[in-house]
């Protein structure tokens, strides 16, 4: 009796569209949170790429606070998916980035100099491949930014309501929203008070 052996060809992994990449970190493409639902047809790209209404409102009130910097004219306040290219393997995105104007040249390419400060509101990438999920991603990205020369990195989370403050020459500390956080140049950010002042309800 003849035995017929059928060899199954290895299935090619479908290529993920480059448009679903949020940022690259140490040579690793990081995709938008929810990208797998887009690939399966359950969601559209637009539904995973934009900020939530709460996230957008928080960025707005933070920019308003930063506008009160005593030496405001020395800084450029950038927002709306700010991309900074750290090296050939890393291009990171921030919700808000504060750059020193001195020596800063603007053009049709992303920033390539370290911001004075970055602020992110919630994790926007799929973190299932990170050992400790969001924590591993946040720490790795923060360390990369600080190593590039960023003076202060701030993460704001809406669930739970926390603020992580990290600096090159300071301990990393996590606070509740109602604890004033000292930003570079000495102004205090009390997120809970700002939200109440603006009448933001959620």
Walk me through the structure.
With 202 residues, the chain is an alpha+beta fold. The protein has a single domain (52-197), classed as tt1808, chain A, CATH 3.90.1570.10. It contains five helices and ten strands; from the N terminus they run ββαααβββαβββββα. Strands 3-4-5-6-7-8 form a six-stranded mixed β-sheet, sandwiched between helices. Strands 1-2 form a two-stranded antiparallel ribbon. A two-stranded antiparallel ribbon has the order 9-10. The longest helix has 15 residues, at 134-148.
> Which structural category do the helix and sheet elements fall into?
alpha+beta
Spatial shape: globular
The number of strands is 10
Largest β sheet strand count, sense and barrel closure = 6 strands, mixed
Low-confidence stretches: none
Mean pLDDT, to the nearest integer, reads: 93
CATH architectural designation: Alpha-Beta Complex
CATH fold-level assignment: tt1808, chain A
Succession of helices and strands: EEHHHEEEHEEEEEH
Strand content: 25-35%
Give me the side-by-side strand order of the main sheet.
3-4-5-6-7-8
Q: Number of helical runs?
A: 5
Q: What share of residues is helical?
A: 10-25%
Number of domains: 1
């Amino acid at each position: 009796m003849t035995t017929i052996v059928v060899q199954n060809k290895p299935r090619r992994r479908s290529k993920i569209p480059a448009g679903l990449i949020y940022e690259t970190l140490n040579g690793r493409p990081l995709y938008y949170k929810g990208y797998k639902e887009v690939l399966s047809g359950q969601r559209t790209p637009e539904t995973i790429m934009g900020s939530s209404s709460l996230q957008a409102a928080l960025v707005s009130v933070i920019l308003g606070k930063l506008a009160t910097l005593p030496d405001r004219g020395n800084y450029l306040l950038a927002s709306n998916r700010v991309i900074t290219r750290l090296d050939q393997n890393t291009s990171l995105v921030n919700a808000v980035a504060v750059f020193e104007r001195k020596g800063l040249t603007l053009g049709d390419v992303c920033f390539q100099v370290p911001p004075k400060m970055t602020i992110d509101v919630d994790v926007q990438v799929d973190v299932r491949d990170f050992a400790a999920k969001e924590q591993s991603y946040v720490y790795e990205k923060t360390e990369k930014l600080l190593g590039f020369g960023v003076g202060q990195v701030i993460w704001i989370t809406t669930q739970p309501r926390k603020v992580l403050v990290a600096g090159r020459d300071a301990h990393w500390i996590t606070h509740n929203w109602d604890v004033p956080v000292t930003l570079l140049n000495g102004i205090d950010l009390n997120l809970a008070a700002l939200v109440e002042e603006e009448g933001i309800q959620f």
